[in-house]
Design a protein that fits this description.
Order of helices and strands: HHHHH
Helix content: 55-70%
Distance between the termini: 37 Å
Structural class: mainly alpha
Strand content: under 5%
Number of helices: 5
Radius of gyration: 15 Å
Amino acid sequence: MKRLTDVVKNIIIINVLIYIGVLMTQQFSGVDIIQYFQLYSPISDKFKPIQLVTHMFMHSPNALSHILFNMLTLFFLGPYVEMKLGARKFLIFYLACGFGAMGLHL
């Protein structure tokens, strides 16, 4: 098994921290900050331009399995892709996939 690479490690950390932050904010303040970070249609009143980036790091706080399986997949497969492409190209690839998913979703 390949070692955990820097970009993969940082992406996993960012995703987990955002997941925990959203979960804690909902539990302790009752504020639903998901509506600010998940992706809404540009014609929706809830759309904010920052959602074009933040949607890539949002996982439903009600479905622990969602983030768990996404991060496990990234943990096991990401280092192979990052080592093949290099750190910079892997990060560009990761973000391009997020933007591609956004385009298909919209």
